């Protein structure tokens, strides 16, 4: 099976799917009215400084002020950051050049840094940097030294900032790397004059659109095709590739098939599954994902899988399969922050180690940085995954208007009991002969059936006639008691 990148473009949104061996592993969605901000450079104004938090809020022209932590500040003497509070470096109404590192998430504003970085296919240029670096994913020490030597040589020649070699730079000819660094230097030279001339609260430099960033950030040597279903976007990708990555041009293909592009590998079905709380395992077990503001929890269950040998062997096999599915689901759902994995308890230490190793192996292909801890005494695995944009659920969904995002609703019985208390409250407060209860159909049915005796007793005790009317638009928790 091949590995492909599918790009579906419509006027309202652009969707990119990374398919590995016929299975969806990553999905990025960018809507035209809510484009991602990561990588954008702004000229902002400090609107509030919080020494107690070692942070400041910066107005960059968005709906909400963005957040800048002291650790993301560029200062001449880094040692002073450990001894001085942030108000030593920033004052209210001060203008500052910043770059977005995280999109606004929920009620939180964008995360900023003043350590500017401009990326390209193989390199990242940091105009204020002092030391060149190499991606941690490049493990060969000889190759790391080669790349570092190449960057230092170029840096000394042009007296420019510093560079970071990206994973894609591994094994690339020095001539190509040099051309990449020269391009970044020219790009920065075109941006730099705008820093002074731009007004505060305005965008100075905008990163590439999602369809083009795919070539720069997602393409790997094992990708066989990049398919795009828009002629205009295809032409743009070809032009970009010919100028900056000529070796990729043959891999970019304009899709003209009758079937929608995402239907080829059932991507639409996978998206629906990724929005579900429960994920089935082939063995018969299942996973349960619960995403909250503080963290995401994943519970592993054997379900219908009973195994053939022993209980320990059954649990071990379920956990191994779960490790693979969890790694894929984290990428598809784009879950970030703190993640707690509740694997089924294993008594064999060797089995625990193997499950952790399997999880680490499956997460190696994840472009987002992940950190995994050992199994805790309670059998939980704590991990973090870097979050730079909204999760799939937050992009495609909104809190339920009935349960207000709780994920549960009061039962019809609970609502009936609340109605009884409200009737008693109203009867004691007002002089009345009859009243009307407006409620959801399921609640009214229960009131007239299982709760009929209670209603009769209330009518006798309170000397009031109670009428009912079902309202289709009411949720199971909604009701009104109207005096007649």
Describe the overall structure:
This protein is an alpha+beta fold and 484 residues long. The protein has helices at 80-83, 141-158, 174-197, 210-218, 231-244, 267-274, 311-333, 349-363, 392-396, 412-429, 441-448, 452-462; strands at residues 3-9, 13-20, 23-31, 41-50, 55-59, 66-69, 95-102, 111-113, 118-119, 123-126, 133-134, 162-165, 202-205, 225-228, 252-254, 278-280, 286-291, 296-301, 337-342, 370-375, 380-385, 434-439, 465-470, 479-483. Helix 7 packs parallel to helix 8 and helix 10 crosses helix 11. The longest helix has 24 residues, at 174-197. The radius of gyration is 29 Å and the shape is globular. 27% of the residues are buried.
Topology:
Layout: E1 3-9, E2 13-20, E3 23-31, E4 41-50, E5 55-59, E6 66-69, H1 80-83, E7 95-102, E8 111-113, E9 118-119, E10 123-126, E11 133-134, H2 141-158, E12 162-165, H3 174-197, E13 202-205, H4 210-218, E14 225-228, H5 231-244, E15 252-254, H6 267-274, E16 278-280, E17 286-291, E18 296-301, H7 311-333, E19 337-342, H8 349-363, E20 370-375, E21 380-385, H9 392-396, H10 412-429, E22 434-439, H11 441-448, H12 452-462, E23 465-470, E24 479-483
Parallel strand pairs: 1-14, 6-8, 11-12, 14-15, 18-19, 22-23
Antiparallel strand pairs: 1-2, 2-3, 4-5, 4-7, 4-13, 5-6, 7-8, 9-10, 10-12, 16-17, 17-18, 19-21, 20-21, 22-24
